[in-house]
Write a structure and sequence with these properties.
Elements (H helix, E strand, L loop, with lengths): L16 H25 L1 H32 L2 H4 L2 H8 L2 H7 L7 H4 L11 H5 L6 H32 L2 H29 L12 H25 L10 H32 L2 H9 L5 H20 L2 H4 L2 H23 L11 H22 L12 H7 L1
Length: 394
């Protein structure tokens, strides 16, 4: 790189982003058309598929929010070079809030506690003060309010830092991120209980919220790794991303994969040792009628395969191989979400075209909006106090 002081013009987003954005919009429109057809023809299946697809992209957005705050707290250059990616990911939350509105018309298709016959279920009635439609949407509004407030505060100070280089903006982002991470963990836990766990209101796990938060971190990191690979192959970021950055991403992916396995196994062992019929039935459903093979494959391919691959330092240092693992892990994240939700809807293992339409429809629009946000700013926060270290190694 030149020894001259870099300017905003030196780190504008590459023009190639426009092509990716157009492709994402095309996928999103096609998927949305499929979803509209499903809503008209098979509303029950539409809402069940849409829940998994929408929640999948919500997890990535929350992962981006978490990593954005971790970057402000740690100041590590490994995350600083991805800060714009994470910031753009957080700005997709308003889109996801809009895309959540269809659920207003199909709660009874997803949640047993929202159906009229729930009044005859004593266990559901014992939870009725919490599990009711009005209060559900109050909690949704509170959680999104927290996430949007954090997104606004962080990005507003980031823009101030870009404009003035005032150290107060850096301090403000760090001060917001500490309590912000706590709020993210708490609100994310409630979100997982409400949207996913309550699809079976008879079952409960005290670890479920931590499982979800760890999965958002893994999803957000894998998404960031993919964009790091895409950007590092093009100017102006070609000389900025280094082997050590990808090595860090690989090590974090390995750690989060192990943590996911730990949380999943702990949840199973607690349920198994307790041997309470209301709890064990959740696992029985995932080991009958074809679901057992899905469960076994999930354990093998979500943990053992990436674990063994990522033990290699050489692979973690090769961006081309690491990005393949990142794509693979994002697919496994969808499989895990499907395993969490679908057995509560379908006794037998089954897939439907609407499952693909949901992930593509929501995902295409999400990526299109994400790129729109990424194009608004320089790819590096040039006035960040750690930026000199980043460019000094480039």
């Amino acid at each position: 790189m030149s020894e001259a002081t870099p300017t905003a013009e030196d780190f504008q987003p590459p023009a190639a982003l426009a092509g990716v954005q157009r492709a994402a919009l095309a996928v999103g429109v096609l998927g949305t058309l499929g979803l509209i057809a499903g809503f008209v023809l098979q509303p029950e299946r539409f809402f069940q598929s849409y829940l998994v697809g929408w929640f999948y992209w919500l997890a990535i957005s929350l992962g981006c929010l978490g990593w954005s705050m971790i970057q402000h707290l740690t100041g590590g250059t490994w995350a600083l070079v991805l800060r714009r990616t994470f910031e753009a990911g957080t700005k997709t939350l308003p889109l996801l809030l809009v895309l959540a509105l269809p659920f207003l018309f199909g709660m009874n298709y997803i949640y047993p506690w929202a159906r009229p016959e729930a009044i005859d279920d004593s266990l559901i009635q014992a939870k009725a003060a919490y599990l009711n439609v009005p209060f559900f949407w109050v909690r949704v509004a509170i959680c999104f309010g927290i996430w949007l407030a954090l997104t606004y505060a962080l990005n507003r100070n980031s823009q101030k830092q870009d404009a003035t280089g005032d150290p107060k903006s850096t301090v403000a982002m760090r001060m917001i991120s500490g309590p912000g991470l706590v709020l993210l963990v708490v609100s994310g836990s409630f979100t997982s209980w409400d949207w996913l766990m309550s699809t079976d209101p008879h079952w409960f796990s005290s670890l479920y919220g931590f499982w979800f938060i760890s999965s958002t971190a893994l999803a957000g990191l894998c998404f960031g790794t993919i964009w790091a690979w895409w950007l590092h192959k093009r100017q102006p970021m070609q000389g900025v991303f280094k082997t050590r950055h990808f090595h860090d991403y690989g090590k974090l992916t390995l750690a989060l994969t192990m943590f996911w396995a730990y949380m999943t196994l702990s949840q199973f062992l607690i349920t198994y040792s307790g041997n309470v019929p209301e709890f064990t039935i959740w696992y029985i459903h995932r080991n009958d009628h074809g679901w057992k093979i899905f469960t076994v494959l999930l354990v093998i391919f979500h943990f053992f395969v990436p674990f063994l691959i990522l033990l290699s330092a050489k692979i973690k240092q090769q961006p081309g191989r690491l990005v393949m693992i990142a794509f693979y892990m994002l697919f496994m994240r969808w499989m895990d979400l499907y395993w969490q939700a679908a057995p509560n809807f379908h006794k037998h293992l089954t897939f439907h075209a609407l499952d693909l339409a949901a992930i593509a429809g929501v995902g295409g629009l999400w990526v299109w909006f994400f790129i729109h946000q990424l194009q608004k700013h320089t790819l590096l926060p040039l006035n960040d106090p750690f930026m000199e270290e980043v460019l000094g190694h480039a």
